[in-house]
Amino acid sequence: MSGTIEGTAGGKTGVVVAGGGQAGFQVAASLRQGGYGGPVTIVAEEPRLPYQRPPLSKTYIKTDADFDSLLLKPRSFYEKNAISLRTGDRVVAIDRQACTVGLASGGSLAYDHLVLAVGASNRVLPIAGNALAGVHQLRTAAEAERLRAGLAGAARVVVVGGGFIGLEVAAALRALEKQVTVVEAADRLMGRTVSREVSRFFLDEHRKMGTEIRLGAAVAAVLGEDRARAVRLSDGEELAADLVLIAAGVTPNDQLAAEAGLETRNGILVDHHMATADPRIFAIGDCAAFHSPFAERIVRLESVQNAVDQAKLVAERIISGAASLPPYRAVPWFWSDQGPFKLQIVGLTAGADHVETAGLGEAGKLVAYCFKGERLLGIETVNRPGEHMLGRRLLAEDLVVARNEVAREGFDLKAHVAALKRQG
Fold first, then answer.
1. For the domain 3-121+251-320, what is the CATH code?
2. Smallest Cα–Cα separation from 129: which of 250, 17, 241, 275?
3. CATH numeric code, 349-423
């Protein structure tokens, strides 16, 4: 599927987008939707049309779904919208003075604006045996397809990492009746993203699903000769495994920007319009580090929402050329489907020092209001979509909810939001 779809827009330079994921696709689509008439070129490392990643760790690995079901748009979309798509290639160098990029294929492209949507890469654990057959990573469709093929002859699976991806895969594999053990080095699940209350909820539910969870357990090595047969923990215990998935997080792909002299800080540092120190170069999505008003610090967010919203802002900035556009202030939200449980998070709840919970009496449902002092950082919900949507409205409109109100028995978020709107 590698190759090039040529657009037909006139001109010699235009916009070059490095990266064919959600962010790269969205900025190209938004440029055309906004009336941008210059050339638009996406350089995508994978030899495929841009596609959705979230289903890879859920439905895609446990079904025989066709890859085309993941596509963001069919091939005809790029042809009709004069978007040149160079698949199976990547940007390997940036010449900021000449305003050109060098390609892995040996060619080069000139640009008026360059958008770095280069994403992130799986963190590789420096342990013996990590390259054995039967050891998998999961970020791309090709990796998902290899994992899906490997599952056919695997009864026992060890998942290294208790974050979103590891737990989504664990739940999917339990649905396939695989014996699953999740090994997490921290003292709780999803420790970097959710409150302890939500961590405990999912620990209990995954165990009820039949998944064995090992917390505070570090992996020392994957054992085997020609292929993986076990995982050895740092305390010497060995866990038998026919297949191992390493889901130990990601690192931003910021080396390209750093080599071009752009500042990086766990990601490519950008301003409130996603521009780097070079006004012709932007960074968006998983690779971009920016100041968030919802965290009051520099953050890097890995979410579809963030990728889409940043891409739309950059497209508007390129089209209008207006430095007076409002700064990026999209409310961050995330989700994770783990078996029958939909976890939804609005806001950035890391750093909360007080959590009020509700819904504990309802099986499979939970709402956690996360505060830092008296400030509501965000809301984490499980199978409570109404409260999630209300939370997005609260943060977007700067509506206030106090800790003592949430703590009252019978607190009703919907009624509270309605009362605030009447007052306002």
1. 3.50.50.60
2. 241
3. 3.30.390.30
